[in-house]
Amino acid sequence: MIKVGIIGAGRIGRVHSESITKYVKGAEIKAISDIRVTDELKDWARTMGIPNVYDDYKQILQDPEIDAVLVCSSTNTHAPISIEAAQAGKHIFCEKPVDANVERIKEVLSEVEKAGVKFQVGFNRRFDHNFKAIKDHVVSGKIGEPHLIRVTSRDPDAPPIEYVKVSGGMFFDMTIHDFDMIRYLSGSEVIEVYVAGGVLVDPEIGKAGDIDTAVITLKLANGAIGVIDNSRKAVYGYDQRAEVFGSKGAVQTANDTNSTAIYSSDTGVIAEKPKYFFLERYMQSFADEMICFVDSVVNNKPTLVNGNDGLQPVLIAIAAKKSLDEGRPIKLSEII
Amino acid sequence: MIKVGIIGAGRIGRVHSESITKYVKGAEIKAISDIRVTDELKDWARTMGIPNVYDDYKQILQDPEIDAVLVCSSTNTHAPISIEAAQAGKHIFCEKPVDANVERIKEVLSEVEKAGVKFQVGFNRRFDHNFKAIKDHVVSGKIGEPHLIRVTSRDPDAPPIEYVKVSGGMFFDMTIHDFDMIRYLSGSEVIEVYVAGGVLVDPEIGKAGDIDTAVITLKLANGAIGVIDNSRKAVYGYDQRAEVFGSKGAVQTANDTNSTAIYSSDTGVIAEKPKYFFLERYMQSFADEMICFVDSVVNNKPTLVNGNDGLQPVLIAIAAKKSLDEGRPIKLSEII
Amino acid sequence: MIKVGIIGAGRIGRVHSESITKYVKGAEIKAISDIRVTDELKDWARTMGIPNVYDDYKQILQDPEIDAVLVCSSTNTHAPISIEAAQAGKHIFCEKPVDANVERIKEVLSEVEKAGVKFQVGFNRRFDHNFKAIKDHVVSGKIGEPHLIRVTSRDPDAPPIEYVKVSGGMFFDMTIHDFDMIRYLSGSEVIEVYVAGGVLVDPEIGKAGDIDTAVITLKLANGAIGVIDNSRKAVYGYDQRAEVFGSKGAVQTANDTNSTAIYSSDTGVIAEKPKYFFLERYMQSFADEMICFVDSVVNNKPTLVNGNDGLQPVLIAIAAKKSLDEGRPIKLSEII
Amino acid sequence: MIKVGIIGAGRIGRVHSESITKYVKGAEIKAISDIRVTDELKDWARTMGIPNVYDDYKQILQDPEIDAVLVCSSTNTHAPISIEAAQAGKHIFCEKPVDANVERIKEVLSEVEKAGVKFQVGFNRRFDHNFKAIKDHVVSGKIGEPHLIRVTSRDPDAPPIEYVKVSGGMFFDMTIHDFDMIRYLSGSEVIEVYVAGGVLVDPEIGKAGDIDTAVITLKLANGAIGVIDNSRKAVYGYDQRAEVFGSKGAVQTANDTNSTAIYSSDTGVIAEKPKYFFLERYMQSFADEMICFVDSVVNNKPTLVNGNDGLQPVLIAIAAKKSLDEGRPIKLSEII
């Protein structure tokens, strides 16, 4: 049984808290911290059985009983807090992205290595039942050599413009998961990126300096080609599909729905829309990544989403932004 | 190359004419007869390249050049014309049902045997790509021993009441195909029938002495159980599905549609309705049964839907009617 | 917050314990009883945070702090324990079937009514997301008047013969859920039952006096017709589907699978098999029926599966057995 | 009724001959020509009822009774024969591609315009039921503004290397249809192309100077983005799918199969593979494009695949080849 501290009590910090409480047998939450400790937060912590609520994450880092921390604070604090946590000898689960700056990520990874602590990045989709099924087909050899990896990733609605302005852009905020998925499913590294993107959903997104629609082509080290299509707004819901095509076959997944019901009437044969958004679609994967993290700490195993897995998607996102800006394919070797 | 005469120029006679002209390389139509020879019929025959149009089918039977006839006239004439055709030495394709009277069917079969001519009954659904696929799975042994055979057969709309009154009832007019399908897919004979039926679609059908909705359970000689569900009106279109479940697996078919298009919008994920009715759904099977019939004549092979295949569904229909009337399961041995 | 006692610590008692602990905010388990209190049970109770483990359920009934009990003991004790619990003023969740004897069920219902306690029967499938989706379509009026209700219910493998001998027979053990489903989906009562059944899976089942395969036709009070097909062994897994067809449309559900992955290779296009068995398929429904039960206790609402819902399927099962034995349709009015 | 001459009696010339004979009521074939007139060809023409077989296409062009010609000869002769045919006042159905040289295509279009004859290019997939269903959704406004157009186009097996060497390369031989499909489904023109391609199927294809796998991104004049993924070898068969995603919804199609049968066994739930190759998948579309062509001649309507529809895909193919060679996106304005 390990003791965990959670840094950041926003939406994702609470999702992880619930997962640990309900599904993770080997861990208990000793403390949660947030820069704003409200009565609501205290009440929530009480119902969750979390004994300590701090307004300073350093109290968590200083607690010798706490074995591991979850860094769920705002993105710009992921790197410095992770560094402090490593220096304090805590195992680290860090939300994505680790940072938008490559040098800072490398610094985190260096400190983690020095401290010899576990470090897992929050690419929860690797734990999704559908994407895992694709991965299993690839690993088993049933696909043969992968030739094409396709990811469709479309949100049900664009975020508020105020969020768009501070999000770091679509590639860092949304596509970062898809970049990870291309690496995960292909088992190879991205070496070149080309983006065709535009503002088709909402002109305000363009005014905020971002795009909302893109097709991203990725050349991989093993010769395979990846392609992602993104939209900030699919009116029918959260569209999350993937396909790997190779020399021996192909495997693809469809969206999850709330039921398998099919209604036939004079207007057509109607199935349910996809589950609405990431909390509905990926809830189980949030639990499973936590089970995996605790298992790697308790049983001293490597984490399934390691430091390099945190670094590479950021490199790809930087290359993607550069490709969009310059209208040409960008080699990752230009970035590093 | 054989020469064919078509007796009856109604809808089904014309369907077969078009099939022979377009798809059957080994046959040409020398004559068509109908009790009402209109100008429209003559024009149609001309465009089809049919050289002779008669108002008396006997002219077809008397033509020594004609090898085979298609009996597409009204149901009550199927048996007598088939008998005459057999006596004239013509091979016979006879539309279903051969007759509603068991003795008359037996007389037909007896004459056919005496004459040594081919005799095929128009159970075209055996030639449907979907039902053939089920049959292939059964025959190949992939299902193992069949345990359950399910047929869903629902029309898109009830026929006119005037037709209902002369149709012989739902079992003879509509379910007769499903009785054949149960025999075909199971590879076994029906020994007992039980019907739960009612008038749920249109009270006028009840007033005409018929039902419009039924679940029919059939005990088979090999121990398997068949079940048919019928409705005269499925608002979403012609619903034609089947399933065979056995010791090693199950196989089922879905409806055919005009396209595989799936439309996702804020109201749901919408596929096409089934093809509208039997001409749309089964067009290719009408051609394929004709190719099969001509092949059995030209190459002296057994027909794939023989005399007994014409008799058994009529026995089952009689038992089904009796079961509905008496509210109890009826053994076919009670009928014969 | 209510306190709950669980009577019977077998598989289903533990399933409910886990559901309450993880998913039911308004309840906590104060005690569990079992006629055999092993060290393993004590350990398990400790990890679940259940403070008391008794070898006599009366200790639970005597505890004034306990508001509600779950009767998860062996089937023959459901009725007497429920009666005692009612007399002790406890709200009752009773596993199915309440009893195989109609009079004893009526006695339970009478005591429950006298005591004014809540009584819910464990027909968990009503809480399954797929069957609920069908029910929602029916209730919303999208199906119109129901005409046909079909339930396919096939187990992945036959139970051990020793179990078959004491199970009360397939209708009481397995089909009882399907009888409930026909009532639930149709919103009507069964008035007549006809069974075509046989021993096709395993002759030992026949020697034990039971059957393993059946098609069951049910006439409903509203004129609709229900049909169930059962098998004790579907080699491809747990097959649980249903369809309601009516005047305005039809709704059907497919099986749940572990993922939506489709693998295309030179041997075909392959999807996953259904989830293996009832614990995999219906896990969430077990939690949801518990949430519903606690809600009805806490907020004094009617339970969603009431006493009559416990009685009717037993009447139908008795009629089904009689139909099988006598080879004729049986009216429920013959039973009562 | 018009009279048609067919120039070129290879596979596609014969496909069109059969379509006209079977399905096109308004046309009859008066002559067919081929540079090699064999006994087999004469026999075939006789069974088809084609009265004249020439070894020189000029005999067709000189026949004043012939209204229209089908140019089905080798690719390099499409342009010169089309020019001669236009000058002879014949309506023209020309197989794709019109030519690999832009100037020659423009010359053809100029002569066609001068002569005032109909000119239709053989992009038969526009007449496919699935792609037409997508197009119908787009045209009806159900998709809203198109944002993403995806085409998956994978052959079941690579052509012989000898064919690869003379094919003009994958873009001209195979992807040309997909370029047309992007234009057709989007209703917009391609303005820029980027290709990520490689040799992953067979190194011999690389030695022959071609590629066998590609992801092609296309920027469209209306702001939408197109993406095509190609492979020369999908072991599961001919993979032909498309999707249009827009502001109001998305529509996608699946592959056609020989039946809807689904086989469930202990190894999985298995559907049929896609129809094998283009003759199986697109047979009806070959007939329908012919019906459309004859209709446009007989009723003096514009053809549905006009001269510009012949030109644009060639421009895109040239740009695609240049993008592959130079590793950068190519604007079509660089080509023209």
Automatic annotation (TrEMBL), chains A, B, C, D:
GO MF terms held by the record: nucleotide binding; oxidoreductase activity
Gene3D superfamilies: Dihydrodipicolinate Reductase, domain 2, NAD(P)-binding Rossmann-like Domain
KW Metal-binding (keyword) present: no
Segments forming domain GFO/IDH/MocA-like oxidoreductase: 131-251
Origin superkingdom: Bacteria
Domain called Gfo/Idh/MocA-like oxidoreductase N-terminal: residue spans: 2-123
Stretch forming the signal peptide: none
This protein's UniProt keywords: Oxidoreductase
Short name of any one Pfam family annotated for the protein: GFO_IDH_MocA
Keyword Zinc-finger on entry: no
Protein family membership: Belongs to the Gfo/Idh/MocA family.
Listed PANTHER family: BINDING ROSSMANN FOLD OXIDOREDUCTASE, PUTATIVE (AFU_ORTHOLOGUE AFUA_2G10240)-RELATED (PTHR42840:SF3), NAD(P)-BINDING ROSSMANN-FOLD SUPERFAMILY PROTEIN-RELATED (PTHR42840)
Protein name: Myo-inositol 2-dehydrogenase
Species: Bisgaardia hudsonensis
